[in-house]
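Issue 218. Parser rejects a valid record. Input:
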Amino acid sequence: MKRGSVLPGFFIKMGLGLFVLLNCVTLLAQDEADTLVSYNKNNKWGFITRNATNVTFRIAPVYEAAYPFYEGRAAVMKNGLWGFIDAAGREVIPFEFPEAKRYRFNKGLIAVKKGVLYGVIDKTGKTVLPFDFQDATVYGDAGVIVAKVRDTKDPSNFTGLAGMYNFQGTQLLPHEYNDIDPAARKNAVALTKNDLRSLANAKGEMLTAKWYKTLVYSDISHFIAANDGQYDLFDANGRLIFSYPSGYVSELKNNRASFKGPNGKYGYLDGRGQVAIQPQFDYISSFNEGLALIQHIGGGVDVIDSLGKIAGTVANGDLNYSFKQGIVWIRQRPPSFQYYAYDRSLNKVFPTGYSSVSSFDENGLAVVGQDKKKGLINKLGQVVLPLEYRNINAGLPGHYIVTTPGDSTGIVTAGGAILFKPQKLVIDVYDKDFYRIRPAGFYFMNDNGNYFCMYRKDGVYYYDQNP
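Output the parser choked on:
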């Protein structure tokens, strides 16, 4: 077969019948490395350039492992250590790191390990944070670095104490926290110390004076609940929206938070902490798409709007899901135990029921199951992918990762087309453009990068075939 051909599969038999992924290539899409493709030949990795018809070898296959280019740099391995090259194949950062976090730069920085300690470097290899830390992570979206040092006062604290730095290496928060999570919604930073939680911003400024036992994020703001039954809701700037004394208050969704009243029933608060719907229900769901479901003791489900008006009823149903894409699944009580799809007025959308379901996703599809086999249907109830798989999980946008009853794994599109034929492989999402594919039993982070392939979202990959 011609070198550089587009192929439907890529097995090479090795040893005693062991099949491994070799000779596969990574298509890249970053800055000047847009046309670069990594490939494997004789267990060594290099890079080629390609266009629609031609493949030209660019960087010789001399590396033990190679990750995709990001921000003009590719992480490659020599003699068991990682370094970085540019698109011309020049070594821009020496091979001296046993580990690099995510093996790619994040807004110009990457956390790397030298010896047994972590530090942070920029794209030139300049040290931004010295190699003094037990761990370090770059959060590009928040523009901060979280690093951990050894807890000298508590030898049993093996994870260390977290502190926070900006991208210039200036310390923003001291090393006194059990955890710092800059991935909180609306750019707030969640702090944990002595099993209590609070919020700061990306500048290291505290957003709340209080510390709480529970901290829950919502789709509008940050909901913080104290252990004494006083529930405080803050916005992203630390402004107190409301406090409410209750045995239970949920996160705020669609400007409604469910709460438990003194009568033991449930109702809803609005975004100001005022009672929007009086506590009168036995079991309730969160609002989603402007609607909530109400469960009655003994059976029966109502759908209500944001003012508490009943828009529909299912007399023999159980509350299990919320509305997604205008449809909700409601399970019938005995003897059926089947899930049926209902619209916003709780009219049945189509007659077929299923023993297991998922909410309809952004593709307008739901995973449904019957007799331990799963498939995909659309909102009209039409089968898009036959019910013949053991498992179906979300892949890259518009894709699904499917597993057959025989444990073969493949990729299908939202249209039901097979993008990657199920095989005895492990497939997971690597980033927004690539899947990582490897043989079962090989764990990439433990085998120094051997025997893996990066598979592009449009289903195209190249490799150099050996005899």
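Fixed in the parser; the record now loads. The radius of gyration is 27 Å.
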